[in-house]
Amino acid sequence: MKYYIVALFDDNSYESITPIQRNISKKFRANRNSPMPYIALEIIDNPNIEKLYTVIDKIIKPYKNFKIELCDEISINENMKTINLSIVNEGYIKKISRTLRDTLSLHGIYTTEPEIKDLSISLGNINSFNKDSKKNNNDIAFDLIKKNGKNLTLKVNALEIWKISNNKKETSIKSYELRSF
Description:
Blueprint: E1 2-9, H1 11-28, E2 38-45, H2 49-60, E3 66-77, E4 82-88, H3 91-106, E5 120-125, H4 139-145, E6 153-163, E7 172-177
Antiparallel strand pairs: 1-2, 1-6, 2-5, 3-4, 3-6, 4-5, 6-7
Helix pairs in contact: 1-4, 2-3
């Protein structure tokens, strides 16, 4: 069973990103039951859950809420079959991702995927996609993301461990709130 460690946003950020998710999902004919937008930090295959909980508790303790900026670049991840929106200035979240990977591997919990180089926000799940839609996919996102000439900013306030299943209520296993300012 695959488990995902994901970063989640606060309510105001979800209000800002929901219209973008809806429009992009409609354009790419994404699954209507896609989960809420998230940033996948790590993918783990069959870990010892209790050990995973304690390790993540130790890792997340010093981190606090932070902001990320959206870019108008849309990409399709063919391995995970998701539509993604790129992030600009990913320094803080990249540091958390790297710390997670290094600390988990030190404790004997290994990730299944190679290192996620370009962190991005997953907006929707797709079953199939045609190659032509990958060429001209940035025009729809540009108008929605740029507001007053600035990139849209979202606030990350929690990390969760997910087990992907057909039931949305069973998706989230454990949640970790980041410290507030």
